[in-house]
Write the structure tokens for this entry.
Amino acid sequence: MKHPFSLQTRRDFLRTGVLGGALSWTVPAFLSNTFSALHAQAAESATQTATGKDSTILVVLQMAGGNDGLNTVVPCASDDYYRARPKIGLPARSILKINDYIGLPPALAGFKDLYDAGHLSIIQGVGYPNPNRSHFRSTEIWQTASDAGKVESYGWLGRYFDNACAGADPTVGVNIGRQMPQAFNARTPTGISLETPQNYRFISGHRGADGEMSADEKSFRELNQPAPEDAAMENSGATIGAIGGPVAHHGSVLDFLQRTALDAELSSDKILAITRRVENQAEYPATQLARSLKLVAQLIAGGLPTRVYYVSQGGYDTHTNQAGQHQRLLQELGDSVKAFIADLKAQGNLPRVLVMTFSEFGRRVTENANGGTDHGAAAPMFVLGDKVRAGLHGQYPSLAPADLFNGDLKYNVDFRCVYAGLLETWLKTRSEPILGRKFTPLALV
Amino acid sequence: MLSPLPAAKWDYACAAHLYNRAGFGGTPAEIEALLGMGLDGAVSYFVDYEKIPETEDRPDWAKPDPARNERVRDLKQMPRQAMSSDLTEEQKQEDAEKRRKAVQEIQRNQVRDLQEMRGQWLQRMAQGPRPLQEKLTLFWHGHFATSAIKVRDAYFMWLQIDTFRRLASGQWLDMLSAVATDPAMLVWLDQAQSRKEHPNENFARECMELFTLGEGHYTEKDVTEAARAMTGWSLDRIQEEYHYRDRMHDAGVKTVLGRTGHFDGPEILKIIVAQPQAARFISGKLWKFFASESGEPALIEALADVFRSKDNQFKPLLRAMFRSEEFYAGSVVGAQVKSPVHWLVGAIRLLERPMPPPIVSTEMIKSLGQDLLMPPNVKGWDGGLSWITTNTLLARYNQAATLVLGQGNLGAPGGGRPGQNMAAQLANAAARRMDPVDVNSIVSLSDRRDAETLITALGQRFMPGQLTDQHRQVLRDFLGSRTEFQDTDVRHAIRLLMCTPEYQVT
């Protein structure tokens, strides 16, 4: 086991911790994974303790709607680009050059700064065989890492959780948003999903005095604790020993529910406590993506031993009048991520964190009649952090009309090679059982 | 196997269980009434639902709209015209703007119609006269999981649900044939675009893998050959109806599941349904939905035998299942996680309150993980334990407050979005307004005499057989030793009962 605690510590925790007493073999997954971090003293430490201390963290950033890769990493030396995009092509003189052929648009100045600081890598021409142009289906393919012709239920991160579950690794992923991303779907559901910490809790129906727990919340907590008769088992060494071990759901449906209820209560308390205690150390713009990343930075600083965070930014489905809209989106992206990186750096946590962006597809090479672009195929991905092998990966796909497939760019890096690279070299786990077969890991770290 | 439950074992708990599974749960009075019918009478009450007059609630918009569809077609052609004509840049911009607005309006109407449809369906589940028909319709919606996100036509969605409802307990081949030529399905699995030059295998594959046989019971070759046979099934998008296109059909020889001939789509469906595995597959799925995640192979085989011997009719299968001793086994009763839809509909029934406005009910089940008419993928909802995450569990607990205490009595739920103007916020709040539960329909005045009596009455309604001593103790502490309880006390106690792991199962 990775994080050995003495039995005494565990007993102390059980007596003095959030539960205030009784705990049975139905130890909640969250508790077993965050045992130390939940301890009153441990929670005060500035960086992740226990499971998270030396571990790396992956932040997945979804650009939902199909991001126009060509106007994100701009091939400003390509005549084909300007021929295909007489109206929305970005003028070469405005481009922040990466090399003679490509560069970033002014809206991504934040990314250019990160690139110059060696914190940004650009993976060019990412996609998959037999690309699907449906948002719905293509998102599903990216989320489950499946082949285009196969429908999978479990997400690639969910399979990572399932897989990591076999060891003592933490298994909890945190999604910032209302809906759990399909990428988190797992055989053993583990991820938590929250929009705002204020709503991720039992909301009292009473209006009690500030700082005082209302009567219904007190009762709620008692109702969602294991039954007292189970407490007798606390004294058996075997039961205590099970804490922190792999989580299995052999119990009845009710056991599972009780465990999840406890998980919910504890994670809710923990997250609320962190957000009250931890201050961000960078200025973020006032956008939704920035708010999400701000929260993630707080949770990392606060010692939540989560290894995977998931945030998303919507609006990339730019069929009409793309120019202004796309620029705003990229500005939000660049500025938010730049602030996030600065925050992590100030915390001292940057070396442990990578951010990966993705979108379900890129867009058609040729602009449409409405000053926008339609659904396409291959597009770039970004990976950001301190430890990333900064620079360019893959080849920029050719824009020559003869090289296109149905008007779309051809991919040259399978996105699953990116996943494999992050799983193998960053999260330090074998990618094959997670991705279903061997993909050559991209050397990102 | 499948011997009927002995009459002596038919009791209140059995009647409650039947109500939970064949319907969405019953109030104590409803369960008593069901108990009085005896096992066979009770099962017949659910299964022979055709005897109960049907309610008609077809919305005005649930019909083809050729005029709108022609407009949509024209809108799609507009940009091309604009390109070719010599309009000024300004006129082109104007055109594009007009088009964008028109498309937006059509999309808004779709969202509104779908919401109305969800509201109506939930209403039928909660208060309609035929609980099993609605439960089966929900089953079929999850089985042939079709999402409005791709179909993008509220009328098509309505039509499909109506088909499920009409054929819910009928014959397998009838259902399958209707689904194969159902417009929403033709769009959903791309069958409408399948032509002999490029057969699209999507429907043929999912038909065998997810709808009828299951993986391992057909070959890749069966899929490609079946896809060829199914070409020609198509759609008239203007009239919004199924349309057979002979010139798209591949009339050649195909070999599917061991049979060879000049098959067309309907013949393939016949061949599939005649497979013994087809009976096993759908019987197993019905057992899983209505009874238990685990079903012994011998039990599923016995159910499939009933199904086959009765000409692949669902009604005799359901009757045998609901009468069987196995259905009332200890491992089945109280061991199913309520789906979000069941959770909401069941709560409405137990609380004897009106269904929330469609905008609220839609968001409610969505926040609990089930977006009705928008299943996550063609496999449908996984169900079971996957309904429960820390997030959805907290959502259940907080939505319980909305249902019991009403909207506006809480700090967080309801409310407008930040940045909305005052008028929009007021309109929003009005659309979401919900009164608190009327406590008098749940407990009598004498039930409120003392804590003990009140707890017993509430326990019997909300958690029959599940109320533990711990629950009692917590509620006793919460209520205190008063002798008369206000409406709000009762409401808070109900909400607390709904905030237990035990309340989430059925």
Q: What stands out?
A: Chain A touches chain B through 54 residues (CB under 8 Å). Residues 48-195+256-435 of chain A form a domain with the Alkaline Phosphatase, subunit A fold (CATH 3.40.720). The longest strand of chain A covers residues 120-127.
